[in-house]
Amino acid sequence: MTASAPRRVAHDVLQAVGESDAYANLLLPAAIDRAGLSTADAALATELTYGTLRRRGTYDAVIAIAADRPVQDIDSSVIDALRLGVHQLLSTRVASHAAVHESVELVRGTGRGASGFVNAVLRRISRDTPGDWMTRVEQSARSDDERLGLMFSHPVWIVRAFRRALAAEGRADELEALLTADNASPRVTMAALPGLAEVPGDARRTPFSPFGFRLAGGDPESLVTGSEGRVRVQDEGSQLAALALTRAEPVRPGERWLDLCAGPGGKTAVLAAEALAGGASLEANEVSPARAGLVRRAIAGVPIDVPVSEEDGRVRAADQPGAYDRILVDAPCTGLGALRRRPEARWRKSPADVPSLTELQTELLTAAIVALRPGGIVAYVTCSPHLAETAGVVAEVRRGFGGAIEELDAREVVRSIATTDPRLPDQSDGSGRAQLWPHRHNTDAMSISLLRKV
Ligand SMILES: C[S@@+](CC[C@H](N)C(=O)[O-])C[C@H]1O[C@@H](n2cnc3c(N)ncnc32)[C@H](O)[C@@H]1O
After folding, report:
1. CA dist list (Å): 359 to 120, 280, 355, 403, 443
2. Which atom of ligand 1 is nearest to the CA of 291?
3. Residue nearest to atom 17 of ligand 1 (CA)
4. So what's the architecture of 234-453 in CATH?
């Protein structure tokens, strides 16, 4: 007997994600198609893949205890079969014997002793309850951050970064709620571009963005296709970030706007709709040609001409000093704010990525300020709450420009746009930065700062 098709698909995707930089959300639909899975089997393969990827940190700690060896010493095909087995044993209702048997079948024939090893480790795990295993994992931690990292399946450096970012708002006690929110799949959030599409009558409006909604049922993709992109899948935090720039103050007809890091173009589409409504013009830039192509597709349904350049944003902006009234710098970042939507992302980044990113972010924001006309506004946005990428970059750039820029109160701007008060607290550095959170706002953890050139 061989492993069932959904488990085989999940195992193949876990292997591909581990061996390359591939994204599960791109690989999985193709693997499901290739295997010809029914709707029910596709749902099972999806749950197994995403659940296993998200909870990998916890499962690896369980496996290390049960196998009495570090997981790094276990062959990659075997460890992925074990992780899938542990997921089924500890987090699903799959019968124990089936969970063990399926994982044994996944490694049959792959190497000497692999199936015997998987059988022994999973049988050992199946003898105790999930609660027993969580207690053992908890007891194996050497610090509180490590404990949280193991229990909630986050690398310790991310736990620390979240702790600091929440502490900057006096809300360090929300850390467990945040880590929990990262482990739940978010419901699909959509946007009806302002002035160009209507929120469907049977949809539920989101609490903050004036044009955000969630479908009660039905297929989001068919709605997007049928609307020529005027209805889009878009996180509510992203909608607010784009609006924070366009609605920070009334638009004067003839204003020139620039979206400096635009790919794949979600916020560009909102900016385009807002530019159309206010009589402004919009240009977009994206360094990656493939992603610039996505930007062009994203704005195809908005009846306004948006030239898209494919340059390094630092050069693109510095070449046009004093040219723009509003600029969006939605900077490349660690993406720590979107972990719930990208199940493998937390294992891909490392603290070593942060310094080079903050250097690039500082240079992009500096160049954007050079490209602003006096009185113009830049929105500096990251999909990360990491203080080095958010408050740190803004502080560094403000130091560089001295009194030539002032920070606006982005929290007040977001509050004025939102249909419900998002209750954004003061930041300990006294800045006007607005920070959204998955556990509090059900959005990605977007950080929004607004700076004016004076
Ligand atoms: C966070 S994403 C932008 C998301 C986009 N605003 C949206 O809402 O769909 C950052 C983008 O910056 C691009 N990028 C990275 N380095 C850049 C650079 N030096 N100049 C311009 N764009 C850059 C990346 O390719 C990526 O597409």
Report:
1. 49, 31, 6, 22, 26
2. 27
3. 287
4. 3-Layer(aba) Sandwich (3.40)
- Mean pLDDT confidence for 217-237: 92
- pTM of the prediction? 0.96
Query: Cβ(411)–Cβ(432) under 8 Å?
Result: yes
pLDDT of residue 218: 83
- Is the Cβ–Cβ distance between 210 and 242 less than 8 Å? no
Amino acid at 32: I
Burial group, residue 310, by CB count within 10 angstroms (0-12, 13-18, 19+): middle
Q: Is the model's pLDDT at 1 over the cut of 70?
A: no
What is the Å distance from ligand 1's center to 332 Cα?
5
Q: How far apart are CA 342 and CA 225, in angstroms?
A: 23
Domain 5-140 top-level CATH class: mainly alpha
* Mutation probe of ligand 1 site: the residue of 239, 286, 311, 393 with most atoms within 8 A of C-beta: 286
Radius of gyration of the chain (CA): 24
Domain with CATH 1.10.940.10 in the chain: 5-140
Q: Per-residue b/e over 380-413, b at no fewer than 16 CB within 10 Å? A: bbbbbbbbbbbbbbbbbbbeebeeebebbbbbeb
